[in-house]
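Input for the complex:
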Amino acid sequence: MRILVVGGGTGGTIVANNLARRLSGEIRARKVRITLLSASDKHMYQPGLLYVAFGQMTPDQLYRDEASLLEGSIDFHVDPVKKFELDQNKVVTVSGKVHDYDILVIATGSRIVPEDIPGMAKGADTFYTEASAVKMFKRLREIQEGTVAVVVGVPHKCPIAPVELVFGLHDYFKARGIRDKIKIKYHYPIGRIHTIKEVATWAKPEFDRMGIEYETLFNVSEVDAENKVVHSEEGTETQYEMLIAIPPHRGMEVIEQNNLGEGGWIPTDRFKLTMTDHDNVYVLGDTTNLPVSKTGSAAHFEAEVVSENIASIIKIGTPVRDYDGKVYCFIETGHDSATYAMFNYQNPPDLKPPSKPMHWFKMAYNQMYWTSVRGLL
Amino acid sequence: MTIQTETPLNPMATEDLQRLVEFAQLVTAGRDAMSDEIVTRLAGAMSEGLTLLDRLTRNEGLMHLLKVLDRQETQYLLVALSDAIHAASQEIPAAPPATGGLACMMRVARDPGTQEGLRLLSVFGKHLSHSMREQHRHGG
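Predicted:
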């Protein structure tokens, strides 16, 4: 049985490690072989980028060698896939190598596309890459007064990021003693301040308490970097001194180029996590078109279901679990307090009051992540 | 006229309350002493420790070695080995340099200690190659 995992991010790494543990006997007896193909030999802890943008972490703290995170029995190659030939159960990599499989797991993730909005790439700061997070921090250190505008593109990774960013900005400028000289203005594309109703209800009084201005139904149409104005499709505009954007996201180019799903999101069964019309192809993490948040935690919980089902199919011939849509998001409510949101297909989140121990839990998780991707937590 | 009566606190309850206050003070002191940096370092050490522990406990070779080490005869061997290392480390520096040549080789070969040593290495090698063959045949 040949299991091929494409993508070495959170979902791909956990699923490969989890399978290697569950099927260790079969691997030793040479009945199962697990191969992982990744675009990079490094693994990045992506939530850490927001800490880099506020000077709380340095980029080197976000990386580990992918090989060091993998079980020794996994055949790991830095050789991204160029072509998916699902009808023939094979993929072709950039180096030209062909990998046949019996079961395929696609976990290629997503990418930012600020270029989809005219002027955004030039006029806005962001924190979704190492370089842009460092640049944003340098800009934050320079600014002395004026409006810091936050705009949000859709869809985007980590739905909590916009509110965490705003809480972080408030605390950052307060710590610098210039909060009274900075106006923070938050813009959101739908009719409330967050896509998750419960988060919106909880965050609104927090915004009011912190003196954050907000404008809803603001879909960015253009950024005029010369005149420092951001325009909305609804016809409104905001003048800014510094613009921070949560750029819109798409699935990876290779998914779009192979016509596996519109926008790079692969049509996926919400319970089985298999690709539509392909029972031996599993999809997880940002790559799915599921109505769940594009977060590391969703990828983690999906990976557990996928690996348990693949292992049980090999051992007893049938899957044993369904994915229930579980997502768990930490919400940093500033630089020294946090809360969390946990929800699934059936139950909406029930947010608790922020606390310092919860912030420490998040700080601890930033380290425990490496244990988590190894498949231990 | 009304008479106010004071209910004296149960001394046991007062003591319990005092203990609770002390416990709360301890928790508060610990909380105040903590910082993001300390939490990060502790969690980092825990994370690495857990990974190491996982690797050790799932290492079949190491687990088998621990089982073998539990046997009395293996412990005798370890004691003998450490005694031998100690004795050799004392004997070698004191011994005159080897003169070389065929006569020297013959003298060493005639030594019963050399023969015992060779026999030990030969028995060890025989069992080692047998065990390796068996493991490869059964896929580890």
